[in-house]
Amino acid sequence: MDRARYLNPHQARDREPDDYQNLLGDAIERAYAAGVHDLPGLVGRLNEARVPSPNGQSWTAELFCHEMKRLGA
């Protein structure tokens, strides 16, 4: 099996994630592990876990989508 043909999960990363990205990623993973797979549920979990949003306000679906786009840029 040629392992070089498979994707490396970090191949698009240009640096290590910072503390904020790790905190956000961990909260998203916990929500998925708990069976939450919809955007309203995920946003609710981020707010329940008190994961800070970029603007310091409560997470909303629009803010979450904007932040995922920003982080993925």
What can you see in these coordinates?
This protein has a domain at 27-73. The mean pLDDT is 88. The protein is globular. It is built from 3 helices and no strands. By secondary structure, it is mainly alpha-helical. α1 crosses α2 (39-48). It starts with 18 loop residues before the first helix and ends with a helix. The protein has helices spanning 19-33, 39-48, 61-72.
In short:
The protein has 73 residues and is mainly alpha-helical. Helices cover 51% and strands 0% of the residues.
**Globular, elongated, flat, extended or rod-shaped: what is the shape?**
globular
Strand proportion, as a percent range, falls in under 5%
| Helix share bin | 40-55%
Contiguous runs where pLDDT drops below 50 for at least 5 residues: none
Oligomer: single chain
Helix/strand order: HHH
Question: What number is the mean pLDDT?
Answer: 88
Jot down its keywords:
single chain, 73 residues, mainly alpha, 0% strand, globular
What topology does this entry show?
Elements: H1 19-33, H2 39-48, H3 61-72
